[in-house]
Amino acid sequence: MSEEKTEHPITPDLFNHLVELAALDLSQEEAEYLRQELNNQMKAIDELEAISLGEETPITSHGVPYTAEITPEARSDKWIACPNPEEILAQAPETKDGYVIVPDIPHTDLE
Amino acid sequence: MELCDLPAHTLAKLIRSREISAADSLESALARISAVDGRPGTLDPGDMNPEDAEKVHAFISLTPDRARAQAQEIDRRLAEGEDPGPLAGVPFTVKDIFCVKDTPSTAGSRILANFVAPYTATPVTRLEAAGGLMLGKVNLDEFTYGSSNESSAFQPNPRNPWDLKRVPGGSSGGSAAAVAAGEGALSLGTDTAGSIRQPAAFCGVVGMKPTYGRVSRYGLIAFGSSLDCPGPVAGNVTDAALMMNVIAGLDPHDGTAANLPVPDYTENLKQSIRGLRIGLSPDYFRIAYFDSLTGELDQQPISPEVESTVMSAAGYLAQMGADIVEDVPMPHTKYGIPVYFVISRVEAASNLHRYDGVKYGYRTPDGVDYLPELYRKSRAEGFGTQPKLRILMGMYVSAAQYSEQYYNRALRVRTLIRNDFEQVFDPNGSQHLDALLTPTTPTTAFPLGDVYGDSVLMQYADQLTVPANHAGVPGLSLPAGFAEDGLPIGVQLLGSDFSEARLLQIGRAYELATEGEEWRQRRPAVQTSD
């Protein structure tokens, strides 16, 4: 890894790829500010590299262990009608006959 | 002193014994809001005027009609000999990250500005069922992403009632400012990295981050789903305990709400803390500050005034009979922020993908004839800078080719942070602590505009609070005096899983030990000038 890449791992090309994945559309000025902030944050994140982690160190996906005693019983998998579908649909920017309206969805071939 | 300056537990007692009415309590709070709050935050505030600089601006939306109907109902039930509940007639506010049916529930973001919630978050339902009066929704950092409230899309953003040129902290800044200014005795906040405790410390009020899973997240607009904890912001420990009694517990709507009985958190408050072991860790008296110019992680001591306040608090607790244990090692504290930069971003990016301009919320007004374009434009126009930053970072560190290096590594370092707490709280361990006593924040409230824009520096404001979120353990911030500049200083108690009752007991002992202190009599300038 080059020195330049370590200092600024998020290059303009990589940044543009992230913007595409994030479904955003940024002005040039906003993009430059955000890329710089991301690279600053990456310097802090890189501190994690210095920590010696034994192979046996497990991941923690949330702090409190959910033991059998405190784990709530799963609800039964039962279909319950939404009591207010009109209210839910009323939140959508555009609807017609109970359907949400969106612009054209492009045809894409699955890879 | 007005009714709105009374503690919640005193108000509820007076109302339940019918010495005052719920309507009196409500009108007092509304009068205070009218006197000190100024205009609520809006999307298009125009120019700031001189009056804006003199006001608190805690609110985004006020719901006086709803509160009046609730107060009327409380008074009616009391007249008929019923008990409306432990919070009868107590006005409270809700951070605008919770859904409350038929109210705008904005998350402080343009993308949800027009969203009217079709259901109510469980903790809010419980507060209302206990007799509380919901005054409205208070401001926050956009989607809770910040430590100052300056990132809210709804401006003017809240100010610190002790010094209106300073930030109230964040992200529950509107909550802490409202309680400090007497605009509602209680507020429901959330804490993902310190978002209840840090503003509570900055505004001189009590804030509790409960154990993860202790309070239901149903109806909370999600940020970091493994970190988010709803909890109380209150004027004193007893009020926080009373609020915990109401909001904690199992919820069929949240599969992560722990199946554990809720104790009466007010019961232990009078018990002696004699013999309890309270630790002080040198790892909480320095901050690992990342220098963006040199790329180095520097260690710096925290503010001497904050340090001496914590030491003084330890002295008071010792006088009350606690054993103070020094030099407790918490060696992974300094990794809390780098780990948070990874985990919270991945969770945020995942949670924010639901906002697409299709089902609810903001849709670009530009006519677009292609769905991906609708997504991009709606999200670009609807999200502010902070959500965009978090989404982009989350995409990067969780990408297939980087996730081992960043995301999985962060989750493993999180284990080390958790281990620090497990070791010191282990009843059979060498420390066997009942609690750790630490500063809540490295400094007092910073001036508006001083830190905003530097996303790294802003994040480091949470350095002493975020480890508890990674570990899931509870934390309580208590007001503990004032710095030379007149700003409040907070101290923090951290405990083992589900030890909220113990933390509140220690907090109450500290209140009793310091009740004769001059600083306990101080009130924010906005509260005394109306």
In short:
With 111 residues, chain A is mainly alpha-helical.
Describe the protein.
The complex is a heterodimer of chains A (111) and B (530). In chain A, 34% of the residues lie in helices and 4% in strands. Chain A is mainly α and 111 residues long. Chain A has a domain at 3-50. Chain A has a two-stranded antiparallel ribbon with strand order 1-2. Chain B is an alpha/beta fold. Chain B has a domain at 3-269 and 517-528: Amidase signature (AS) enzymes, CATH 3.90.1300.10. Chain B has helices at residues 8-16, 22-36, 64-79, 122-129, 173-180, 197-203, 237-247, 304-319, 336-352, 371-382, 385-398, 404-425, 455-459, 466-471, 500-514, 525-528; strands at 59-62, 91-95, 133-138, 186-191, 206-209, 229-234, 277-279, 286-290, 297-301, 323-325, 435-439, 475-482, 488-494. Chain B has an 11-stranded mixed sheet with strand order 1-3-2-4-6-5-12-13-11-7-10, sandwiched between helices. Chain B has a two-stranded antiparallel sheet with strand order 8-9. In chain B, β2 (91-95), α4 (122-129) and β3 (133-138) form a beta-alpha-beta unit. In chain B, α2 (22-36) packs antiparallel against α3, α5 packs parallel to α6 and α9 (336-352) crosses α12 (404-425). The mean pLDDT of chain B is 96. At the A-B interface, α2 and α3 of A face α9, α10, α11, α12 and α13 of B.
